[in-house]
């Protein structure tokens, strides 16, 4: 019987390892979505830079999170023998891989806001600092119970802050960090308020959106991290929020393809926090509100003389992430068809803490880096485009 029990234990551990590995691969693929969403939105002279930023940001984030960030968040490190690391079928290793893909989403989000005028190396360095120190500090507070913040919320308001898949921890953090970076950079040269630069390639924009949509089911469902925690409710809620965001963005955005392809992303951002609690109808409403919120705020930003958020990452991730954190406390209530166990006050306080953490951390990191080396491209480099200025090659070649 002991042999049978041991065999079942090994199979279960192997299944958990494979489960979270598949989630890591799906979220890794989402970074291609970030890349193509940006490629399709920016002008032709900045397409190569968009692709390069996402990949190099991921590489530097991996090193920063491996060496520093993961230990800050979870108290674990990898400076032990490979024999120790391989225990339990290497589950702890693929868990790191999965959580790394979340951490690396932060600079990928910021990339869309600073596009077309952000200096390459300074932002690469800033991204590494954020993934090493700023993001994991808040991640550990919320998802690992560090420093007693969650315990305090539980004792004060009856429930801890609930963010199942990162509406606030990941998306909110990325969106509000992006707002700070955009503030430091100012507007693009030649941009006139109310007259937006047209997207360079709608098919690429749409491809990026679809890759993100598909990968998001790994982002949300696999946040259970073990096979016995998997929930079809998370999958259906993600689907309904995506659909709600699409429909409302279609209506409010007046058939604009950019809004239509960002609407589902807004819905998915918002549903992350409470996707394991809400009723599917509640998820549909949450996604719909997020889709409308994105269209309304991004339209307003196009008229701004100071905020030039190229992909609208602050409304998409920052504001919709805030809405998602609060919505989990509303639509997670049993009175609205949810599973309960959440507190509106805890969701408000936890969400506000995430915003403050991102803004303060962003001003510290971007402020220091900007003092050392300008975050913005020179006027000449911005004019000729980041592709030629930084990478010495354009995205296409018409030579025969």
UniProtKB/TrEMBL annotation:
Gene3D superfamilies: Ammonium transporter AmtB like domains
Transmembrane in keyword set: yes
Location in or out of the cell: Membrane
Entry keyword set: Ammonia transport, Membrane, Transmembrane, Transmembrane helix, Transport
Organism superkingdom: Bacteria
Keyword Cytoplasm: no
Domain Ammonium transporter AmtB-like, chain residue ranges per copy: 19-392
Record-annotated membrane-spanning stretches: 18-39, 51-73, 93-111, 123-144, 164-185, 197-218, 230-252, 259-275, 281-299, 311-332, 344-369
A Pfam family recorded for this sequence: Ammonium_transp
Membrane topology: Multi-pass membrane protein
Chief localisation class: membrane
Family: Belongs to the ammonia transporter channel (TC 1.A.11.2) family.
Listed name of the protein: Ammonium transporter
């Amino acid at each position: 019987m002991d042999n049978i029990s041991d065999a079942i234990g090994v199979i279960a551990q192997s299944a958990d390892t494979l489960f979270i590995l598949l989630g890591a691969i799906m979220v890794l693929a989402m970074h291609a979505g970030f890349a193509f969403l940006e490629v399709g939105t920016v002008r032709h002279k900045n397409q190569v830079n968009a692709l390069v930023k996402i990949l190099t940001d991921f590489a530097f984030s991996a090193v920063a999170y491996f060496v520093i960030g993961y230990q800050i968040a979870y108290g674990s490190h990898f400076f032990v023998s490979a024999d120790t690391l391989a225990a339990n079928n290497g589950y702890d290793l693929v868990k790191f891989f999965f959580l790394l893909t979340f951490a690396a989403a932060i600079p990928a989000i910021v990339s869309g806001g600073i596009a077309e005028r952000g200096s390459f190396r300074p932002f690469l360095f800033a991204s590494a600092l954020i993934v090493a120190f700023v993001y994991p500090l808040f991640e550990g507070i919320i998802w690992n119970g560090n420093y007693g913040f969650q315990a305090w919320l539980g004792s004060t308001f009856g429930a801890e802050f609930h963010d199942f898949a990162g509406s606030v921890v990941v998306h909110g953090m990325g969106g509000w960090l992006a707002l700070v970076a955009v503030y430091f950079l100012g507007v693009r040269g030649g941009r006139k308020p109310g007259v937006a630069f047209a997207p360079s390639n709608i098919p690429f924009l749409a491809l990026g959106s679809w890759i993100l949509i598909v990968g998001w089911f790994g982002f949300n469902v696999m946040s259970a991290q073990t096979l016995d925690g998997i929930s079809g409710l998370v999958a259906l809620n993600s689907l309904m929020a995506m659909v709600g965001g699409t429909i409302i963005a279609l209506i409010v955005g007046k058939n604009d393809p950019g809004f239509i392809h960002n609407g589902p992303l807004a819905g998915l951002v918002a549903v992350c926090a409470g996707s394991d609690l809400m009723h599917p109808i509640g998820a549909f409403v949450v996604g719909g509100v997020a889709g409308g919120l994105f269209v309304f705020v991004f339209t307003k930003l196009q008229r701004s003389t100071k905020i030039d958020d190229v992909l609208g990452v602050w409304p998409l991730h920052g504001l919709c992430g805030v809405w998602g954190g609060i919505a989990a406390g509303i639509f997670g209530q049993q009175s609205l068809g949810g599973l309960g166990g959440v507190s509106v006050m805890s969701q408000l306080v936890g969400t506000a803490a995430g915003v403050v953490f991102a803004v303060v951390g962003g001003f510290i990191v971007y402020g220091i880096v900007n003092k050392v080396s300008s975050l913005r491209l020179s006027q000449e480099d911005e004019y000729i485009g980041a592709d030629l200025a930084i990478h010495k090659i354009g995205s296409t070649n018409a030579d025969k």
